[in-house]
Specification:
Layout: H1 10-13, E1 29-30, E2 34-36, E3 39-48, H2 50-56, E4 64-68, H3 77-91, E5 100-109, H4 113-120, E6 124-129, E7 136-140, E8 143-148, E9 155-158, E10 169-176, E11 189-194, E12 199-208, E13 213-221, E14 226-233, E15 238-245, E16 250-256, E17 269-277, E18 280-289, E19 294-297, E20 300-303, E21 306-307, E22 312-315, H5 328-340, E23 345-348, H6 355-364, E24 367-371, H7 380-393, E25 399-403
Parallel strand pairs: 22-23, 23-24, 24-25
Antiparallel strand pairs: 1-18, 2-11, 3-4, 3-5, 5-10, 6-9, 6-11, 7-8, 7-10, 12-13, 13-16, 14-15, 14-17, 17-18, 19-20, 20-21
Helix pairs in contact: 5-6
Length: 413
């Protein structure tokens, strides 16, 4: 874990780059030890200057219970506590202009057996926030571990060096208020162990010319000697292609006997990537690929050279009962509704949704016009949000276009 500067308020006045955030990667399956830190947390609403809140957060002791993932408005706790804190600040004569609203969330945890073993083996320990509503500062065992301004794409931090040699550990979060409609940690929070040599990202480009499929693949790693890749037809339990390459080397396969992916026939194939060295397997991940060619011209959109009629709806990932904390059954309901009503395209509005929705779109067959977060105006924070969204979602066959910025920007990619 590299040296991390102390938390700074400058990132709130002019939202800038994240601190200690790890590279965002494609959504995949892996066998890395994983521990979910959702369920019951402690929370309190606070108000004061940013500098005061940063100083106060690691030592905060007055809490009540809340559920994560979730939004704090549901139980009224954050609003009530924040109002009490604001009145206290006013009684002390603090200038209202310097006061900000925030919440402090706390979770004590003990490593489960797989993570404990990974720590003893010297593996890297990462902390991932799946989704949060505003600028976030995090501390583990009293040590500051990272900052991120925009939480619609998962933010992972290296916390290896912050962990103390104790039986239990403490995670504390300062979550600032923002223009987002709901406040809270609205997606999963988790710990993951990564081996010293591990896969950082998998960048596949899968296409189909109407006769056969083609695949270009690059794998980013932190070490290792060889990358082994295999494309498998899971339905027929058949290996279609395999290759061995060096880390970061680009490999290409052509003439693949695969069915082209479309909303009407969403054929998926499993890509398995393994990192090896002289001692054996170091890391393995897998993801589903769909082979298709999409082209946009002045005449319209075409798929595999044929005109594509898009019949779409807009989707804003916000549930009337749970706010931004949308569960998989609700996502599946949206997918089923689209298929029943002849809708083949979903336009993601306002901010990126949960990656699981794109997995379902890949599986059931929907075209998706994805979007990046527009929480901030042009600048470092937005540039980072754009890169993060593209890195996470670019491997999904369902994603056929991107919306960058908001409607007033009129910038599309």
């Amino acid at each position: 874990m590299k040296h991390i500067p102390e938390p700074d308020v400058a990132g709130l006045r002019d939202p800038g780059a994240s601190v200690n955030r790890l590279t965002v990667h494609a959504t995949w399956r892996s066998r890395r030890p994983l521990q979910i830190l959702s369920s019951t947390w402690q929370v309190t609403g606070v108000s004061g200057t940013v500098a005061e809140l940063i100083e106060r957060t690691p030592h905060q002791r007055d809490f009540e219970a809340t559920s994560i993932p979730g939004i704090l408005e549901l139980d009224g706790l954050w609003v009530r506590r924040e109002e009490e804190a604001r009145r206290t600040a006013e009684a002390r004569g603090e200038p209202a202009a310097d006061s900000v609203r925030a919440s402090i969330l706390r979770r004590e945890f003990i490593f489960d057996a797989p993570l404990k073993e990974a720590v003893e083996r010297g593996w890297m320990m990462t902390l991932t926030f799946g989704g949060f509503s505003g600028p976030l500062y995090a501390w583990v065992d009293g040590t500051f571990v990272g900052f991120c301004a925009d939480g619609f794409i998962p933010a992972a931090f290296d916390v290896t060096g912050a962990l103390q040699p104790t039986h239990s550990h403490t995670l504390v979060v300062l979550l600032m208020d923002s223009p987002v409609c709901c406040h809270g940690l609205f997606r999963e929070v988790s710990l993951e162990a990564r081996p010293p040599a591990h896969i950082v990202d998998v960048v596949p480009v899968a296409s189909h010319d109407g006769r056969a499929g083609a695949l270009t693949l690059r794998v980013e790693t932190t070490g290792g000697v060889e990358v082994h890749a295999a494309l498998v037809n899971e339905t027929e339990q058949k290996r279609l292609w395999s290759a061995v390459a060096s880390p970061d080397e680009v490999v290409t396969a052509r003439g693949l006997d695969v069915i082209p992916w479309s909303a009407e026939e969403p054929a998926l194939y499993r890509l398995i990537v393994t990192l090896r060295d002289e001692e054996g397997v170091k890391d393995t991940v897998s993801l589903d690929l769909g082979f298709r060619d999409v082209e946009a011209t002045s005449q319209g959109v075409s798929l595999a050279g044929k005109a594509l009629a898009l019949r779409g709806v807009t989707r804003n990932e916000c549930d009337g009962r749970t706010g931004l904390a949308v569960n998989i059954p609700e996502m599946l309901d949206d997918i089923v509704w689209c298929k029943r009503h002849g809708v083949n395209t979903v336009v993601i509005a306002d901010a990126p949704g949960h990656a699981r929705f794109l997995d379902l779109a890949d599986e059931y067959g929907l075209y998706v016009i994805d979007c990046t977060s527009n929480l901030y105006g042009p600048g470092v924070a937005r540039d980072e949000a754009i890169e993060a969204a593209i890195r996470r979602d670019r491997a999904h066959p369902s994603v056929i276009a991107w919306a960058i910025g908001d409607e007033e920007d009129e910038v599309r990619a």
